[in-house]
Design brief:
The structure is a homotetramer of 136-residue chains. Chain A has a single domain, classed as Hotdog Thioesterase (Thiol Ester Dehydrase, Chain A). Chain A has two helices and eight strands, in the order αββββαββββ. The first copy, chain A, is globular and about 45 Å long. In chain A, the strands form two sheets. Chain A has a six-stranded antiparallel β-sheet with strand order 1-2-6-7-8-5. Chain A has a two-stranded antiparallel sheet with strand order 3-4. The two termini of chain A are 22 Å apart. In chain A, a hairpin with a 2-residue loop joins strand 1 and strand 2. With 136 residues, chain A is α+β, with helices and mostly antiparallel strands. Chains A and C meet through helix 2 and strand 5 of A and helix 2 and strand 5 of C. Chains A, B, C, D: This is PaaI family thioesterase. Chains A, B, C, D: InterPro entries: HotDog_dom_sf (IPR029069), Thioestr_dom (IPR006683). Chains A, B, C, D: Pfam families: 4HBT.
């Protein structure tokens, strides 16, 4: 069971990362779901969500899942992120990201994230992400 | 439903890649499971399965899943493979790999593969793999 | 020798991607250097350049290098981008990115990008990126 | 300057990894070059060097470069390896791999490796690799 509630994590994100507008949807065993409402500033020419926005959402999804497992660790940092762009995201749908943690070690955590334009069956992107966890 | 049976793909592997000893366990919608029996030649010092063996099994799992979707395409080639090593594999257990295809386009296919030492709950490695599919 | 001048590519970027503020510094044989001036909107808490900004700069560096090699191809799209975060970027320095193309095929191009906080010897991040090139 | 000579590292590899046939060619500041002589057991159908062989050579190149920087650390392990296959390797040429370390931290080291069929100008594959370094 996650150590923290989604409200605790949402509150932590608001305080520590005031610029993020990602919403924590749910926490579950070794995973999390987050949502990014899409507006014009997230789009690129051609009417699609930009790659850096997808990366940012995936990174937050991973961070939320990790905080749910190990508690508030503000200094955890992304060391590697690999993203595959699979399909063109819809311009007028939220991005919903599901993270599943693959490993939570003492020093490294690895997770994968599938990103969807809400309401579509197939993912728009897939991310694998590694976080370094600071020594206590 | 896969285009080919597991027996057809196993037979193709035996003919085209006679050196592989990977066994096709099952095919399913956009996915496949394969098995590698482990013997001394797959191990490295410390009594664990070597990284290149895990990579090779993941690559075959992806290839099998892809053939199941698009039929026999001998010239499909791996263009990118990214592997995260998560836990030390057991020296005396088979490696079982589950591939799920994330995208099968006309020119590129992307899949992810989770690798397990048989009987363990947590994966020993996770792979994301891209294949280029030749033009007809 | 690049097919296009840096002015031609800068002009194309301004027209097609009006929101980007990346500056094309130089084009060379199978490579390019670009610069991102950093201001508050590129920073995250802790006073460092955010990961998605680094990703965006690397992606533009790769695109510029590719356009220099193959000419204006508006529909080339990123299919995979893998970033390693190596050191904390300075909050008050420009980000300078050097891209070197590793392969320019008919259908795929692969490049690597080293990103620096200007004036520092060691890279803040390293990216490997694949673009799919549309069929003519 | 590397902490160890290439003879010291070659001797360590022979003792600890007796099955490897990789030859340490040179060590330099934050880098190393290694060579794999290719014979039939490294080839796959179509007369080309197999992907897992390329991965294994890149992994050793990274390990050698790392040992040159930090001394003999037998427990350093690969945590992530991402390989792009760029061109078909020649069946009858050695594989030569050049590793350049991008970061050597206390806990993680990251390097990139370019692999060549000897005598060709363009790389056959490119690898980015992360090692975890055990705490002392």
């Amino acid at each position: 069971m996650p150590l923290l509630s989604k409200e605790q994590i949402q509150s932590f994100l608001h305080t520590e990362f005031p610029q993020t507008t990602v919403i924590v949807e749910s926490l579950n065993e070794k995973g999390a779901t987050v949502r990014q409402t899409i507006n014009d500033q997230h789009l690129r020419p051609g009417g699609t969500v930009s790659g850096p926005v997808l990366m940012a959402v995936a990174d937050v999804a991973m961070y939320v899942a990790l905080l749910g497992e190990i508690g508030i660790v503000p200094l955890a940092v992304t060391t590697n992120l690999s993203i595959n762009f699979l399909r063109k995201p819809a311009a007028d749908s939220d991005i919903v990201a599901h993270c599943q943690l693959l490993k939570v070690g003492k020093r490294l955590a690895v997770g994968e994230v599938s990103l969807f334009s809400e309401g579509q069956a197939d993912p728009v992107a897939h991310v694998v992400c590694t976080y370094a966890i600071p020594s206590v």
